[in-house]
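ARCHIVE CARD
CATEGORY: sequence design from structure
SOURCE FIELD: tokenized fold
FIELD CONTENT:
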């Protein structure tokens, strides 16, 4: 199964992340391998790396939340196995860099988690209810492990006791 990955940089700050396009491709390939999602051969996913101002505008327009977030996913409507364009993932530099520092992760490591998380939304996973969140987080952990990354939720168990462990992301059902 091949998937075309279109990586777009709309914020210069992302130039600091060496090998960003290769990282995105590895994350998408590992996500596909772990989920066994049935996609159209050669379908396309677009990943845009922007700044907080751009994602805040998208978050306001599509989710009614007037603030930046780390990742937004815009799945193309229709059955997964019939979509030549899977959808779009948008990731904000300042928020992801701040979160990486707060969580004592490298920027590439946290960026990988955002790509994985966004991609899982594109193929139908969600975390609106506890059972969905458990499934999605389990996949994220296994995909991260496949890539040789630390568990993206390892440090959140203690934080969850005071409500601070939620992933600050958005999922938009359609664009």
């Amino acid at each position: 199964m091949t998937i075309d990955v279109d990586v777009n940089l709309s914020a210069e700050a992302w130039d600091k992340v060496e090998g960003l396009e290769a990282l995105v491709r590895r994350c998408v390939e590992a996500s596909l391998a772990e989920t066994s999602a049935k996609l159209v051969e050669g379908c396309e996913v677009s990943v845009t790396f922007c700044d907080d101002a751009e994602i805040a505008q998208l978050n306001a327009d599509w989710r009614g939340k007037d603030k930046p977030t780390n990742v937004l996913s815009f799945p193309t409507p229709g059955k997964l196995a019939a979509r030549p364009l899977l959808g779009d993932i948008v990731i904000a530099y300042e928020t992801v860099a701040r979160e990486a520092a707060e969580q004592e992760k490298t920027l590439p490591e946290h960026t990988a988690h955002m790509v994985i998380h966004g991609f899982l939304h594109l193929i139908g996973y969600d975390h609106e209810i506890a059972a969905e969140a458990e499934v999605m987080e389990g996949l994220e952990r296994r995909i991260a492990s496949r890539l040789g990354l630390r568990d993206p939720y390892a440090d959140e168990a203690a934080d969850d006791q005071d409500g601070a462990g939620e992933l600050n992301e958005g999922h938009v059902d359609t664009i």
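CARD ANNOTATION: The beta strands are 3-9, 43-50, 71-75, 85-92, 169-171. The first strand starts at residue 3 and ends at 9.
SHELF: design records, drawer C
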